[in-house]
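QUALITY CONTROL LOG
STEP: pairwise intake check
CHECKER ROLE: data steward
CRITERIA: each record must contain a sequence immediately followed by its structure tokens, with no blank fields

ENTRY 1 OF 2
RESULT FIELD BELOW
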Amino acid sequence: MSSGRSLGNAGENMAAAYLLEHGYKISERNYRCPIGEMDIVAFDGEELVFVEVKTRTSLRYGYPYQAVDYRKQQRYYRISAFYRASHPQYADLNCRFDVIEVYLPNNDTQNINHIKNAFEVGDNRYY
């Protein structure tokens, strides 16, 4: 496993623990479909939340959330639509897209920044 994938896995584990500590219920991790992958699918109360986790050791190339550009937002929207179509029990739930930034500048520190409603696509209702 590459160090980049190891870093990503560590960040996703920290993000999942963070969400659980804040009362979220995780439905799926690393949800894969023909369109792509979503790091975490969770519930915040009755709201369905699609979470992208971005982990960095420095800000050399910008803030992690900046990696979620328009093209990726469109893909995440399509993944969420596929997820909702394959889980019709969730079709009427409100949903949102969050980004969790995990900073791991060295082995002694970590910082998590949870950006709720990081972006919206369309009217945020798919059906």
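ENTRY 2 OF 2
RESULT FIELD BELOW
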Amino acid sequence: MAYTRGNLAVKEKTAERGHQNPRYRETTKVVTRRSSLPVKEKLLYMVTILFCVAVMGGLLWQNANLYSIKREMYNLDTEMQTMTVEVKELSVQKEKLEEEIPAKAAALGYVEQQEGFHIQVPSNSQATGPVDEVTTAKK
């Protein structure tokens, strides 16, 4: 006996006809209807998806901030390296200029003093009295 649409008590149609070839072929199609989701379940799914999107957005924002900080650090490091090279070049240039000072001073007529320094007190001062002498002090 055939199993037709969930019922075993139905006779086969080919048996009733006496084994004749049918003019047409009967086909059955199973149609299943999906029931729609309840509103609460839809809201639950929507809230879950929004939460996941918010977490991903937060992670992206944090990652973007870290990238910008790392980029700034890299830029500062390269800037420090260029400044260090520039400082070294300027210190070498300073040393060269310091070596040239005595030669240029001699060319301009300056004389290097041997000992001490001279203090000349003008005669207009009213300290304890007029002093017209030059004092020399040693270093």
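INTAKE CHECK: passed for both entries
DESCRIPTIVE NOTE, ENTRY 2: The chain has a mean pLDDT of 81.
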